[in-house]
């Protein structure tokens, strides 16, 4: 299995997947290096105000005379790492809770699943808003708010996979051999959960970026003068005729969300059990 | 419909010896354009009315794919070569290979019917047995509702489903596995086909139930002059009802003969291996994988 | 007591819309080095019984005793070492092996269970050899093997734990006809070599006859006939056993249809006949 991961079969390479991967990698690269090469200080307010895109300022300037290109590029460094962190956190916590619920069952399952139901019963953005408002507006609190609403889907998915695996014969065989619960989870269950969870996570990066920028847009996330995409769009509302202020951050969000969705979709094709079945079926 | 053989029906007997379905040099490959995996490598078979042609082989030998090809039910990436010719006593010659889906739909279920290993998956769980039986009939035979109902009751009675009139109003899950297979057979017979393809028809059934289904299949072949293709890995089943047996391995027919000769005097080494692997008083040996 | 396994008055029920009694007061014993076959048609309760023997099913009443100790339910907790000498081979070879772990490693888990119990250690290759597979298969994954090979690996893994009771639930029914008899025979030999008792569950009387010392025939949750295999095969007493044996089509090429029961599930099959039980 490990060997096959290194050598990607040609059938798995889809045009959209490749485009998505290239864009996603480019954005992540920008996110971590932008501060080193952007032409202007993203916070400096020393350029002419509301200047249309041109040779000096590629994407124009905003109402405070800041270079939008520089703010956009450094803004990637704000949103994307936080979104990735958010996904990793939700994944770890959600998977652990889901695995425990699915494996131990009974009242443990009941308790944990009612908890996830509780969270899932609220519309995501509304609940995140409530949490962010309660904790006070800051980017860090926005991440916590987003975390509160995003772990349950991992818990749900992991639980359903574990429930299916728990009665698999090889899991039973391991337990007859005296595996401890922890060993069963580690050896027989975890490796078979990884694939689907990775797919979910890669699809979720886009959602996380949307959620974080959404909260910032509403003023519950990044605070001025942090160059965050959502708050940049929010600022554009006050200068509606200067189209460039809102357009470019909007395009940034669009491209990065789509890129991660494309990657997630092609990962889904790779891990799809039916495609594995057809490959195994062709052999026998 | 078909009377018991009498001296007058001598020409019927001679008609019976001409095949209704002739498979000639059939090849089936599955895969994309430059990567076709050959599943069936040029096999020939002939199905004659009133005879049960057995197709034996292990899983992966290509026997199921062969029967699916006769119904045009192969996946869209299958490449089929050779010929499958239906010589319908009612309507002349038809070549099935390369036929359009619409034309095949006319033949499938009407002239060539099929029953599968698992009757619960071939019956619609949400429709009553009556609907499933009469739907076919009203569509293909253009019968009125009342006629169709009577026809359906007759069929269920023939396959020995108890209380046929009442059974029409029940759903498949209300019947036992054996009864479900009988109902599937009734549906297959509804349009009075000339060819019946039976793919492992008793494999999912208990042995006591299997015995009843085998009796039924044999009787139907005899009285309706059905040409039956029996696909099975079970040599016991084969021995019970097949008249002729073809043994398949790796997409080829390695041996084909009348039943008695296959069992008493197998020519091909693989046939001998298969026979010697059976549990017998003399002990058994292993077939190399 | 000399018995390895004793099942006494076991009752298993499933509670759904109605209560289904899958196993109805069944008692049986297995001695070390004995092969006991449990035969019957689908739904007769033989698989439920097998699962109860290893602790995967909770009995409604009755007891499963292994070496004078009640077999505990296979719950969430780690199974005690004294019970890892009960091993099981499952029907479906496709789900018997972990798809992400190499064959050799999975057999090693069996070996580890044996060593933890204080038994002798061994190498995965030895077990592969014993089940007739090439030793190079240690580095393979389940999806690279055929169904028959997977089942052999599952048998090797169970045997590597050095069980003295091996429960096999329809271990051959998913295999090709040509390898069924040989795998069944191999299981008998390997279990006996290890001095273990073998509970072999099957619906195939023809194969059971060849490998089982004693046979138990179940119908609708009850034992209808039991005793020495040859006696049951050659001279069945109970009407159900008779119907079962005469329904088996003989692969002799003579074109003889097997006898079909006159009705589906006749009443007489449910008779209790004391003279059909424990025949010696």
TrEMBL record, chain A:
<feature type="transmembrane region" description="Helical">
    <location>
        <begin position="80"/>
        <end position="104"/>
    </location>
</feature>
<keyword id="KW-1133">Transmembrane helix</keyword>
<dbReference type="InterPro" id="IPR035906">
    <property type="entry name" value="MetI-like_sf"/>
</dbReference>
<keyword id="KW-0813">Transport</keyword>
<dbReference type="InterPro" id="IPR050366">
    <property type="entry name" value="BP-dependent_transpt_permease"/>
</dbReference>
<protein>
    <submittedName>
        <fullName>Peptide/nickel transport system permease protein</fullName>
    </submittedName>
</protein>
<dbReference type="GO" id="GO:0055085">
    <property type="term" value="P:transmembrane transport"/>
</dbReference>
<feature type="transmembrane region" description="Helical">
    <location>
        <begin position="125"/>
        <end position="149"/>
    </location>
</feature>
<dbReference type="InterPro" id="IPR000515">
    <property type="entry name" value="MetI-like"/>
</dbReference>
<keyword id="KW-0812">Transmembrane</keyword>
<feature type="transmembrane region" description="Helical">
    <location>
        <begin position="197"/>
        <end position="222"/>
    </location>
</feature>
<dbReference type="GO" id="GO:0005886">
    <property type="term" value="C:plasma membrane"/>
</dbReference>
<comment type="similarity">
    <text>Belongs to the binding-protein-dependent transport system permease family.</text>
</comment>
<feature type="transmembrane region" description="Helical">
    <location>
        <begin position="242"/>
        <end position="263"/>
    </location>
</feature>
<feature type="transmembrane region" description="Helical">
    <location>
        <begin position="12"/>
        <end position="38"/>
    </location>
</feature>
Automatic annotation (TrEMBL), chain B:
<dbReference type="InterPro" id="IPR027417">
    <property type="entry name" value="P-loop_NTPase"/>
</dbReference>
<dbReference type="GO" id="GO:0005524">
    <property type="term" value="F:ATP binding"/>
</dbReference>
<comment type="similarity">
    <text>Belongs to the ABC transporter superfamily.</text>
</comment>
<dbReference type="GO" id="GO:0016887">
    <property type="term" value="F:ATP hydrolysis activity"/>
</dbReference>
<keyword id="KW-0813">Transport</keyword>
<keyword id="KW-0472">Membrane</keyword>
<dbReference type="Pfam" id="PF00005">
    <property type="entry name" value="ABC_tran"/>
</dbReference>
<keyword id="KW-1003">Cell membrane</keyword>
<dbReference type="InterPro" id="IPR050388">
    <property type="entry name" value="ABC_Ni/Peptide_Import"/>
</dbReference>
<dbReference type="InterPro" id="IPR017871">
    <property type="entry name" value="ABC_transporter-like_CS"/>
</dbReference>
<dbReference type="InterPro" id="IPR003439">
    <property type="entry name" value="ABC_transporter-like_ATP-bd"/>
</dbReference>
<dbReference type="GO" id="GO:0005886">
    <property type="term" value="C:plasma membrane"/>
</dbReference>
<keyword id="KW-0547">Nucleotide-binding</keyword>
<keyword id="KW-0067">ATP-binding</keyword>
<dbReference type="InterPro" id="IPR003593">
    <property type="entry name" value="AAA+_ATPase"/>
</dbReference>
UniProtKB/TrEMBL annotation, chain C:
<dbReference type="GO" id="GO:0015833">
    <property type="term" value="P:peptide transport"/>
</dbReference>
<keyword id="KW-0067">ATP-binding</keyword>
<dbReference type="InterPro" id="IPR050319">
    <property type="entry name" value="ABC_transp_ATP-bind"/>
</dbReference>
<dbReference type="InterPro" id="IPR027417">
    <property type="entry name" value="P-loop_NTPase"/>
</dbReference>
<dbReference type="GO" id="GO:0016887">
    <property type="term" value="F:ATP hydrolysis activity"/>
</dbReference>
<dbReference type="InterPro" id="IPR013563">
    <property type="entry name" value="Oligopep_ABC_C"/>
</dbReference>
<dbReference type="Pfam" id="PF08352">
    <property type="entry name" value="oligo_HPY"/>
</dbReference>
<keyword id="KW-0813">Transport</keyword>
<dbReference type="InterPro" id="IPR003593">
    <property type="entry name" value="AAA+_ATPase"/>
</dbReference>
<comment type="similarity">
    <text>Belongs to the ABC transporter superfamily.</text>
</comment>
<dbReference type="Pfam" id="PF00005">
    <property type="entry name" value="ABC_tran"/>
</dbReference>
<dbReference type="GO" id="GO:0005524">
    <property type="term" value="F:ATP binding"/>
</dbReference>
<dbReference type="GO" id="GO:0055085">
    <property type="term" value="P:transmembrane transport"/>
</dbReference>
<keyword id="KW-0547">Nucleotide-binding</keyword>
<feature type="domain" description="ABC transporter">
    <location>
        <begin position="5"/>
        <end position="245"/>
    </location>
</feature>
């Amino acid at each position: 299995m490990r060997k096959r991961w290194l050598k990607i079969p040609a059938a798995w390479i889809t045009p959209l997947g490749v485009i998505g991967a290239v864009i996603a990698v480019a954005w992540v690269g920008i996110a971590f290096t932008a501060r080193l090469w952007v032409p202007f200080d993203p916070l400096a307010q020393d350029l002419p105000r509301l200047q249309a895109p041109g040779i000096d300022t590629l994407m124009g300037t905003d109402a405070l005379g800041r270079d939008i290109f520089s703010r956009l590029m450094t803004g990637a460094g704000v949103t994307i790492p936080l979104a990735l962190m958010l996904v990793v956190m939700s994944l770890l916590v959600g998977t652990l809770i889901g695995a425990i619920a699915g494996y131990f069952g009974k009242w443990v399952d009941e308790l944990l699943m009612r908890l996830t139901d509780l969270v899932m019963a609220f519309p995501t953005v509304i609940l995140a808003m409530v949490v962010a408002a309660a904790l006070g507006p800051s980017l860090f609190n926005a991440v916590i708010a987003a975390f509160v609403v995003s772990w349950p889907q991992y818990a749900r998915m992991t639980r359903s996979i574990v429930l299916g695996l728990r009665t698999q014969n090889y899991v039973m065989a391991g337990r007859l051999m005296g595996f401890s619960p922890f060993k069963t989870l580690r050896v027989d269950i975890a490796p078979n959960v990884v694939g689907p969870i990775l797919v979910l996570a890669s699809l979720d990066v886009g959602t996380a970026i949307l959620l974080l920028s959404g909260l910032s847009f509403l003023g519950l996330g990044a605070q001025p003068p942090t160059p965050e995409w959502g708050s940049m769009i929010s600022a554009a509302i006050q200068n509606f005729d200067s189209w460039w202020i809102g357009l470019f951050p909007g395009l940034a969000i669009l491209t990065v969300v789509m890129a991660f969705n494309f990657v997630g979709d092609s990962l889904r094709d790779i891990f799809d059990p039916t495609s594995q079945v057809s490959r195994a079926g062709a052999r026998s | 419909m078909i009377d018991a053989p009498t001296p007058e029906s001598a020409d019927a007997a001679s008609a019976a010896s001409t095949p209704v379905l002739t498979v000639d040099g059939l090849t089936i490959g599955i895969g994309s354009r430059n990567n076709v995996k050959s599943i069936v490598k040029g096999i020939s078979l002939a199905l004659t009315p009133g005879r049960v042609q057995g197709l034996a082989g292990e899983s992966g030998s290509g026997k199921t794919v062969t029967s699916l090809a006769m119904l045009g039910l192969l996946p869209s990436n299958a490449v089929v070569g050779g010929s499958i010719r239906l010589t319908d006593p009612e309507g002349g010659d038809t070549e099935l290979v390369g036929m359009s889906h619409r034309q095949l739909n006319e033949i499938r279920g009407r002239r060539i019917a099929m029953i599968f290993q698992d009757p619960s998956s071939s019956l619609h769980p949400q429709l009553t047995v009556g609907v499933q039986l009469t739907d076919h009939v009203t569509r293909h035979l253009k019968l009125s509702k009342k006629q169709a109902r009577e026809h359906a009751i007759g069929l269920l009675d023939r396959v020995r489903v108890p209380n046929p009139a009442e059974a029409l109003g029940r759903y498949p899950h209300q019947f036992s596995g054996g009864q479900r297979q009988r109902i599937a057979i009734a549906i297959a017979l509804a349009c009075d086909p000339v060819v019946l393809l039976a793919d492992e028809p008793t494999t999912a059934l208990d042995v006591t139930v299997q015995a009843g289904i085998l009796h039924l299949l044999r009787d139907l072949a005899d009285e309706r002059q059905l040409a039956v293709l029996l696909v099975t890995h079970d040599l016991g089943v084969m021995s019970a009802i097949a008249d002729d047996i073809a043994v398949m391995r790796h997409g080829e027919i390695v041996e084909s003969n009348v039943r008695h000769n296959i069992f008493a005097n197998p020519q091909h080494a693989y046939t001998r291996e298969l026979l010697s692997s059976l549990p017998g008083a003399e002990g058994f040996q292993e077939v190399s994988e | 007591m000399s018995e390895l396994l004793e099942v006494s008055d076991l009752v298993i029920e499933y509670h759904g819309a109605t209560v289904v009694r899958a196993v109805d007061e069944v008692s049986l014993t297995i001695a070390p080095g004995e092969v006991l076959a449990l035969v019957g048609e689908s739904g007769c309760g033989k698989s439920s019984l097998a699962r109860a023997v290893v602790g995967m099913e909770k009995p409604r009443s009755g007891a499963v005793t292994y070496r004078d100790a009640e077999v505990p339910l296979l719950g969430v907790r780690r199974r005690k070492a004294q019970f890892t000498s009960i091993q099981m081979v499952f029907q479906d070879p496709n789900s018997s092996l972990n798809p992400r772990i190499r064959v050799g490693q999975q057999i090693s888990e069996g070996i580890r269970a044996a060593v933890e119990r204080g038994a002798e250690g061994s190498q995965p290759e030895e077990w592969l050899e014993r089940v007739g597979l090439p030793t190079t298969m240690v580095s393979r994954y389940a999806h690279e093997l055929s169904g028959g090979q997977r089942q052999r690996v599952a048998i090797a893994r169970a045997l590597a734990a050095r069980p003295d009771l091996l429960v096999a639930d329809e271990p051959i029914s998913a295999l090709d006809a040509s390898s069924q008899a040989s795998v069944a025979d191999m299981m008998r030999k390997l279990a006996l070599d290890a001095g273990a008792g073998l509970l072999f569950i099957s619906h195939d009387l023809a194969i059971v006859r060849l490998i089982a010392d004693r046979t138990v025939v179940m119908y609708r949750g009850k034992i209808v006939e039991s005793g020495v295999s040859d006696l049951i095969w050659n001279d069945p007493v109970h009407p159900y056993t008779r119907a079962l044996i005469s329904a088996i089509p003989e692969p002799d090429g003579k074109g003889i249809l097997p006898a079909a029961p006159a009705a589906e599930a006749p009443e007489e099959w449910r008779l209790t006949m004391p003279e059909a039980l424990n025949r010696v």
